[in-house]
Design a protein that fits this description.
Aminopeptidase; alpha+beta; acyltransferase activity, transferring groups other than amino-acyl groups; YpeA/RimI_acetyltransf; 2 domains; 8 helices; twelve-stranded mixed beta sheet; GNAT_dom; binds coenzyme A; elongated; GCN5 family acetyltransferase; acyltransferase
Length: 279
């Protein structure tokens, strides 16, 4: 009844129309254009040849986008157009993608889901996915940003190296979207800077229309300065970007960045669950 086409063989603009239609009624704003889609593909290791569009009578009605990093997989996003939901297609797409990933040598699959979407959490649970941790998105007002230390803009290869070091030394547990590899693959999408001496660390950030956002921030070897470094980084990025609100998305509750964000005065905005399936 459904025809399956690899995303790598499907016109990208048609895919984006489908994705944007599916997420029209989603609680978070999702709107991909060609540029942001290509950035997400590269940065999150979305494998277009392991991702699929499902067609019914030649009409695209569902999609599933999968990421692969060696033996680790991730469902980046999936969805079914409104009038086709609840008829079994979502389940078919997920089983299909999990088979593809299994055959590709993937042994674990991770995904993120909004904690408020209980139906969707249940949907993934039926396939064996289990909630492993909360990812908290947080916000802080910075009405008068003024850092008191110097940040130096740095290229991503050096930030990647620091992020790898920080991961080991601080026992960091980053989620997929802030893994050191993600930072390395992000091209020139984000800005990156480092600090030396006592507050040795780095910050990776971007800006939206209304706020600056921190992709990642970490000391390199001293966890005790985390909150202080983050506080300085927030002031720095808000000053550089001329924003008075700073956002940090999907912070894992068991990563030291989470405690630092709380200590630096960030307030929770919404929560996602990270769910994991061992194949
Ligand atoms: C989640 C989603 C992909 C499920 O696809 P689907 O085709 O409706 O799924 P199925 O018909 O195979 O299974 C339906 C199950 O999903 C759950 N579900 C979640 N959202 C649903 C919705 N909006 N409509 C119907 N069922 C939904 C139901 O609990 C249902 O369980 P049941 O079989 O015990 O009744 C689809 O609802 C969707 O595209 N939602 C919007 C986008 C989204 O939330 N994507 C997931 C996060 S990236």
């Amino acid at each position: 009844m459904y025809e399956t086409v690899k995303v790598s063989e499907f016109p990208t603009l048609r895919l984006l129309n489908l994705v944007n239609e599916v997420f029209e009624d989603y609680p978070l704003h999702v709107e991909w254009d060609l540029f942001s889609f290509n950035q997400d593909v590269r940065e999150n290791s979305i494998s277009l040849s392991d991702s699929y569009v499902f067609l019914k009578d030649d009409r695209p009605v569902g999609f599933i986008l999968c990421c692969v990093r060696r033996s680790r997989g991730r469902i980046d996003s999936m969805g079914v157009i409104k009038e086709e939901r609840g008829k079994g297609l979502g389940g078919k797409m997920l089983s299909f993608a999990l088979d593809v990933l299994r055959n590709r040598g993937v042994s674990s699959v991770v995904l993120e889901v909004l904690a408020s979407q209980e139906e969707v959490v249940k949907f993934y649970s039926k396939f064996g996915f289990r909630v492993t941790r909360r990812l908290v998105s947080m916000i802080k007002n910075v009405p008068n940003p003024r850092p008191s230390i110097r940040f130096l803009k740095t290229e991503r290869e050096s930030i990647h190296k620091s992020a790898l070091e920080a991961m080991v030394r601080l026992s960091r547990r980053p989620n997929w979207q802030r893994e050191p590899l993600t930072l390395l693959l992000s091209g020139d999408r984000y800005k990156m800077a480092r600090v030396g001496q006592r507050l040795a660390g780095y910050v990776v950030w971007g800006k939206g229309e209304e706020n600056a956002f921190i992709v990642d921030c970490s000391p390199i070897n001293d966890e005790s300065i985390y909150a202080e470094l983050l506080e300085q980084a927030v002031n720095y990025v808000c000053q550089v970007e001329e924003r008075s609100v700073c956002f940090v998305g999907n912070v894992p509750e068991d990563d030291p960045l989470y405690r630092a964000a709380e200590q630096a005065g960030f307030q929770p905005l919404f929560e996602q669950y990270e769910m994991l399936l061992q194949l």
